[in-house]
Amino acid sequence: MKGVVFTTFLDMVESTWDFDMVDTIIENAELKSGGAYTAVGTYDHSEAVALVTALSAATDIGVNDLLKTFGQHLFGVLIKGHPEFAAGVEHPLDFLEGVERYIHVEVRKLYPDAQLPQFECNRKSDDELIMIYASGRHLEDLCEGLIRGCLDFYKTQAALTRLTLPDEREEFTISLRSDSP
To answer: Can you give the pTM of this predicted structure?
Structure first.
């Protein structure tokens, strides 16, 4: 997992709680890296899980909720750092459809060793998209948060439903509300 995910998570923890909380979760997570991350480094995803689990224990907020919240935050940070990904894209479902065929292609150019999740998209209508998420890391809650972050970025209201498929992939159905732009 790329270090930008770790550094962004720790920045979110510091801004939401404080630096002492960052220190506490790093100590409690028993990390092989010692909690020293660079944005361009690559780290085992189990360290991210350990950090979120330690934050959950320290705050009594569920791991799933923390991952969703972090996903929303992460989307905002990533799009601010890479506005070109949204350039010319005026609809959130168009953006989401482009993750696999454009954004992941560009990420692989920058980080050839990146192990990215895979997405299959099926556009049901102008206002409905089905995304199938596949990853051995099983960070479906983080994915949901990223989707919600995208909807926030586009100031769009939507119903979001999830279904775990028999092959352990996750199906997200995003249905825009009729009063959304």
So the answer is: 0.94
Q: Spell out a b/e string for 58-96, using b for 16 or more CB atoms within 10 Å of the CB, else e.
A: eeeeeeeebbbbbbbbbbbbbbeeeeebbeeeebbbebb
96 and 172 share one domain: yes
The answer to whether position 77 is within a domain reads no
pLDDT at 54: 98
Task: Name the nearest CA neighbour of 6 among 41, 55, 54, 30.
Answer: 41
Same domain, 113 and 172: yes
Nearest CA-CA partner of 149 in 65, 99, 74:
74
Residue 12 maps to a domain: yes
- For residue 12, give the H/E element and its range: helix 3-16
Which pLDDT belongs to residue 180? Answer: 52
DSSP string, 101-143: IIIHHHHHHH-TT----EEEEEEEETTEEEEEEE-TT--HHHH
Interval 83-98: pLDDT, tens:
999 999 999 999 999 9
Q: What is the pLDDT of residues 15-69, one digit of tens each?
A: 999 999 999 999 999 999 999 999 989 999 999 999 999 999 999 999 999 999 9
Cβ neighbours of residue 125 closer than 8 Å, sequence gap 6 or more = none
